[in-house]
């Protein structure tokens, strides 16, 4: 049986999203790399497949419902109906809750949470009709404990992702479509370059294994949940945090 499928990964231009796209492509899937930064997703897609046959970039603002609908049609024309969706797109600013402007709050919530709502509602119905699908949402330890380094808006959005994961999982469970969340602690990605160095050092020192996570480690977990043998796992949150949060 041919188990090569079409996968959509948001925020795929760099960091965890790029690592997930690379891992899924390495497993033989066709991968649509979605990112608001067209240059980064295009570079990663060329790295995976210069011909564009099995990996291609798609520029999209995942906050925008019309843009999400339009890019979904583009992906369908290029690769067929998606059967795997990895909601990874996210942004934050490291600042005190007292200093967050309302516009920034709304933008972070739209990028991190509304995008999950929009993409899943756009792509999951066809998965349900076909009787197979995998949706994996990138949450965060911050969404479980309230992250100080990442910002209150980021933490709140990721807490919302955890709940939305359960809502969609219940809706789709009987149809062969699973919906799960992966909750990393701080992972070494380019976004860390924009954060306060002293706060990052303190955060790393608090991790029992003594280091930040690697994007490739998160990608391996995501890829597992997108596999053929994980149909009995849904509505779950998988921690990958170096022992920082044990339960």
Notes on the structure:
- This protein is an alpha/beta fold and 247 residues long.
- It is 45% helix and 17% strand.
- It contains eight helices and nine strands.
- The strands form two sheets. It has a seven-stranded parallel β-sheet with strand order 3-2-1-4-5-6-9, sandwiched between helices.
- Strand 4, helix 4 and strand 5 form a beta-alpha-beta unit.
- Helix 1 crosses helix 8, helix 3 runs parallel beside helix 4 and helix 4 runs parallel beside helix 6.
- The protein is globular and about 50 Å long.
In short, what is this structure?
With 247 residues, this protein is α/β, with parallel strands linked by helices. It has eight helices and nine strands.
Write the layout of secondary structure elements.
Layout: E1 6-10, H1 15-26, E2 30-35, H2 38-48, E3 55-59, H3 65-79, E4 84-87, H4 102-130, E5 133-138, H5 142-145, H6 152-172, E6 177-184, E7 187-188, H7 197-205, E8 213-214, H8 215-225, E9 237-240
Helix pairs in contact: 1-8, 3-4, 4-6
Q: What is the terminal separation in angstroms?
A: 38 Å
Give the averaged pLDDT, no decimals: 94
Please count the helical segments. 8
Report the biggest beta sheet as strand number plus sense, adding barrel if it closes. 7 strands, parallel
Residues in helix, %: 40-55%
The spatial strand order of the largest sheet comes to 3-2-1-4-5-6-9
Order of helices and strands: EHEHEHEHEHHEEHEHE
Any low-confidence stretches, pLDDT <50, length ≥5?
none
- The SS-based structural class is alpha/beta
Identify the overall geometry: globular
Strand content: 15-25%
Radius of gyration: 17 Å
């Amino acid at each position: 049986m041919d188990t090569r499928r079409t996968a959509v990964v948001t925020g795929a231009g760099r960091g965890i999203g790029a690592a997930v796209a690379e891992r899924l492509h390495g497993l033989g899937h066709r991968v649509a790399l979605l990112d608001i930064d067209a240059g980064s997703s295009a570079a990663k897609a060329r790295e995976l497949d210069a011909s564009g046959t099995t990996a291609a970039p798609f520029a999209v603002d995942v906050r925008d419902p019309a843009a999400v609908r339009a890019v979904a049609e583009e992906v369908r024309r290029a690769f067929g109906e998606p059967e795997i969706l990895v909601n990874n797109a996210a942004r934050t600013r490291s600042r005190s809750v007292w200093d967050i402007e309302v516009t920034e709050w709304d933008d972070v919530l739209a990028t991190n949470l509304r995008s999950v709502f929009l993409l899943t509602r756009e792509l999951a119905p066809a998965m349900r009709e076909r009787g197979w699908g995998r949706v994996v949402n990138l949450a965060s330890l911050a969404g479980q404990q309230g992250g100080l380094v990442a910002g209150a808006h980021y933490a709140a959005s990721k807490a919302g992702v955890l709940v939305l994961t359960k809502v969609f999982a219940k809706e789709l469970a009987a149809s062969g479509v699973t919906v799960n969340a992966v909750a990393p602690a701080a992972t070494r990605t380019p976004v860390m370059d924009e954060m306060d160095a002293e706060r990052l050092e303190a955060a790393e020192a608090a991790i029992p294994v003594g280091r930040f996570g690697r994007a490739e480690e998160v990608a391996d977990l995501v890829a597992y949940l997108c596999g053929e043998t994980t149909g009995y796992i849904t509505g779950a949150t998988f921690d990958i945090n170096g022992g920082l949060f044990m339960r």
